[in-house]
Input
Amino acid sequence: MKIADLEFGKYPVFLAPMEDVTDEAFRMLCKRYGADMVYTEFVSSDALIRDINSTVRKLNIHDKERPVAIQIYGNEVEPMVEAAKRVEAVRPDILDINFGCPVKKVARKGCGAGMLQNIPKLLEITRAVVEAVNIPVTVKTRLGWDESSKCIVELAEALQDCGIAALTVHGRTRAQMYTGEADWTLIGKIKENPRMHIPIIGNGDITTPERAKECFDRYGVDAVMIGRASFGQPWIFRDVKHYLHNGERAVPFTFAECMNVLREQVHDSVEWLGERPGILHVRRHLAATPLLKGLPDFRPMRIEMLRAEKLEELTDTLRRIEEKYG
Output
């Protein structure tokens, strides 16, 4: 599979862009465990052109994580074009436009999935950004605003006509947020459209190697994207890639090996962000990791783990967890 001149081979698996999740440290870890492409946290076009420090920092990318995409969002043409040019200057492999974020504070401003209520403006922005830069432009969006307005099959064709190089579709509407099951049937219908020639990337509920293979085989997508299932288990990319290419499950990591990965993630997060911000950032992964689900009498240690504010304190707790349950 190719996006513009980027060659990914068969069965590409991408790390989804996620706010407060896909910072440099986590992207590098997922890349090491097999992610074929990684995406930054989404970048506000308005904040970027105002040089807000926290937003500008999101443009930090490294050669070791390539190919890497930087994702932007906004609801007006001029700021999006200016932001796209600034992104191009830091030389990502791909510029991605977010028309899919369902979070209220984003969508109610007409950004992210909010753009699905204004398709003409959505297409105007896309066309302008494609014309403004010389790197491949892709789009990530949803099935539609709600159950009564699932427009993605027609929208996909219109976006292709704007000149995008690939399209990622999350199999939910904005109204669904992250509830219920992702519906891949319309993603499959996009692939069935004989006019479509750009790669289609499917996203939503890829939580196991078997599900990833089913989505490739049943819906014909060119790549799949893993989001929330990567929380606290970046090794999921290793497991999925092994299954896709070998037809069998990889030998699972031992409890100790998984704990080593989590410790590495903690240290990387602290190194990139500083002690307290890094610990606060990594808590989401520690809270969500399936490694620690269902352990007997784990609640006191879980509370201790998630309340730790010093690196030494947290690493000591993780050491004792491994000693007790490993």
